[in-house]
Structures are given as structure tokens and as C-alpha cells.
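Colleagues,

For the teaching module next term, I've prepared a clean inverse folding example: a structure given as C-alpha cells, and then the sequence designed for it. I'd like students to try predicting residues themselves before seeing the answer, so please don't circulate the second half yet.
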């Protein structure tokens, strides 16, 4: 119940406009700008892929609360964090989760959420983090303009 109160308060705030890169020391060439690229029948890429060695720590891009840790068909091992403005930050294809990470945890930009991998539909691809941001009206491009 307390998590819902915290999340409700986040919706009342303005969205974070200065996100942190979820992987440390990323060079521009490690980011594949594939926003909106076709991904099968009637689907497009709703995020950015950030390539890094398997096991690279993934940090929260913003402060907020962990609202989901689990599996899905496309993302494999995933973590979702709700931040200011009710935006959901989606981290996918994780090799593994950070030890002791639980739904309801408050996270900061220094919190490790998990580690880069190739789970879900990333099987057979180079290790990377799929990073997505969702508003109440849909996905937005996580890369700054």
C-alpha cells in the first residue's frame, strides 16, 4: 500500500528532464539509435539499445521506485522504475538482477538495477541494454535531441 502512495506522489511532480546514462563511461558509438525502427509485424522499436560487455552494471537513470522485476517475452529479464511525472523507465535484456533488489525499493542514480545481457528476444545478439521511457501517452525517445 505504501508503494502506491509514493507512486501517486511521483505523478504529481514534473518529469525529470536531466536523466543519467544508465551505463557508466558509454561512448556515442555504443548507442544504436534505432528509435522507431521496424521490429516485426506492426511493431516499432520503443527505446534505445546501449551496447556493453555482458555483466556491465546498469544504473537507474533517475530517482524513483522499482515497480516491476521480472520476465517478459521480448525483454527477457526486465526492471521497471517509476520516476517523477509518472514516467516508467524500462530496462531490458538483463543478464541478471542486482542482489537484494525488490519491488518497492527507492532507487537513485547510483543504484545498480542489474547487469547487461542478452535475454528475451536479444538472444544471439551482442550484449546490450534496451532502455525505454514510457509516459501516460506512450513511449518517448530516451536520447536527448
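(Answer key — instructors only)
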Amino acid at each position: 500500500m505504501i508503494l502506491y502512495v509514493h507512486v501517486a506522489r511521483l505523478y504529481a511532480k514534473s518529469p525529470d528532464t536531466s536523466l543519467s546514462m544508465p551505463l557508466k563511461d558509454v561512448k556515442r558509438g555504443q548507442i544504436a539509435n534505432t528509435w522507431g525502427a521496424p521490429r516485426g509485424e506492426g511493431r516499432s522499436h520503443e527505446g534505445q539499445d546501449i551496447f556493453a560487455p555482458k555483466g556491465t552494471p546498469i544504473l537507474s537513470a533517475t530517482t524513483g521506485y522499482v515497480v516491476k522485476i521480472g520476465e517478459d517475452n521480448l525483454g527477457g529479464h526486465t526492471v521497471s522504475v517509476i520516476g517523477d511525472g509518472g514516467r516508467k523507465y524500462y530496462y531490458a535484456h538483463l543478464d541478471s538482477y542486482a542482489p537484494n533488489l525488490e519491488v518497492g525499493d527507492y532507487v537513485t542514480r547510483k543504484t545498480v538495477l542489474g547487469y547487461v545481457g542478452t535475454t528475451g528476444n536479444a538472444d544471439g545478439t551482442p550484449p546490450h541494454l534496451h532502455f525505454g521511457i514510457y509516459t501516460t501517452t506512450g513511449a518517448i525517445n530516451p536520447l536527448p535531441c
